[in-house]
TrEMBL record:
The lineage of its organism: Bacteria, Bacillati, Bacillota, Clostridia, Eubacteriales. This is UPF0251 protein SAMN02745207_03337. Pfam families: DUF134 (PF02001). Keywords: DNA-binding. The keyword DNA-binding applies.
Length: 151
């Protein structure tokens, strides 16, 4: 039985998550899905120009795991660009570090896994949560909503 996949640390989430080739209709177009941690691997290696060891350290994975992630990302991007596929950025197994949320019921503070747990406390399940705005990126990314009263 294989070990469960460990969540990868992600420091960035793009505003735009869907790209289509210019002049092509979205109907009947193939779609390539790039996982959030794959985008993060490319960002660290290709934009921040970090070496593999530093990238792996920042994502809190082994160097081999980082290499597997970036290989997968680059292959997907090459296929999408050469075949004219749409590119969707979503999913994956990651832990975001750009925003922290606080539950008003149990007091739990937690990092979000994007939309999956943005407005739901992972400890008590309450919808009475709000962004604590501790991270700089959070200020422009999070759109604070009033706590939902579904208790």
């Amino acid at each position: 039985m294989p070990r469960p996949t460990k969540a990868r640390r992600v420091e960035f989430f793009p505003e735009n998550t869907y790209f289509i080739p210019l002049g092509k209709a979205k109907i009947n177009m193939k779609e390539t899905v790039l996982k959030v941690e794959e985008l993060e691997a490319m960002r660290l290696k290709d934009i921040e120009d970090l070496n593999q060891e530093k990238c792996a350290e920042r994502m809190q994975v082994s160097r081999q795991t980082f290499q597997n992630i970036i290989d997968s990302a680059r292959k997907k991007m090459a296929i999408a660009l050469t075949e004219g596929n749409a590119i969707s950025i979503s999913g994956g197994n990651y832990r975001a570090t750009f925003c922290k949320f606080k539950c008003f019921i149990c007091g739990n503070t937690y990092e979000i896994n994007y939309e999956q747990d943005k407005y739901l406390c992972p400890i008590c399940g309450s919808h009475k949560v709000m962004c604590s705005k501790k991270a700089g990126f959070c200020k422009k990314w999070c759109k604070e909503k009033p706590a939902k009263d579904n208790e």
